[in-house]
From TrEMBL:
Stretches the record annotates as Disordered: 1-99
Source organism: Rhynchospora pubera
Lineage: Eukaryota, Viridiplantae, Streptophyta, Embryophyta, Tracheophyta
Transmembrane feature ranges: none
Biased composition (Low complexity): 68-87
InterPro entries per the UniProt record, alphabetical: LEA_1
Name of the protein in its database record: 18 kDa seed maturation protein
């Protein structure tokens, strides 16, 4: 279960990412209205997409850092992201034998 501090930090990261995505969309619309050149319009859309992806990546990195600070592992554990405390040993994933 997440602590209040972790939930608050995650909410702040989500809000910040949302603001960055909104800024990227607004900037793209302004740039598109300023030009008639289709290449410039495409470039503006490309910049918007890059900024949105960067904001999402930063948000996910902050969430992982918040989870790591609390002690949850991000590379071991189950598909839910909750650490089991056991390292991944490879194996067959439950299919067949691991002989």
């Amino acid at each position: 279960m997440q602590s209040v501090k972790e939930k608050t930090s995650n909410a702040a990261a989500s809000a910040k990412a949302g603001m960055e995505k909104t800024k990227a969309s607004v900037d793209e619309k302004v740039e598109k209205m300023k030009t008639r050149d289709p290449m410039e319009k495409a470039a503006a859309e490309e910049r918007k997409d890059e900024r949105k992806m960067a904001a999402e990546a930063e948000k996910q990195a902050e969430k992982h850092a918040n989870a790591a600070e609390r002690g949850y592992g991000t590379t071991t554990g189950t598909a839910t992201g909750i650490a089991t405390g056991r390292p991944h040993t490879g194996g067959t994933g439950g299919f067949g034998s691991s002989v």
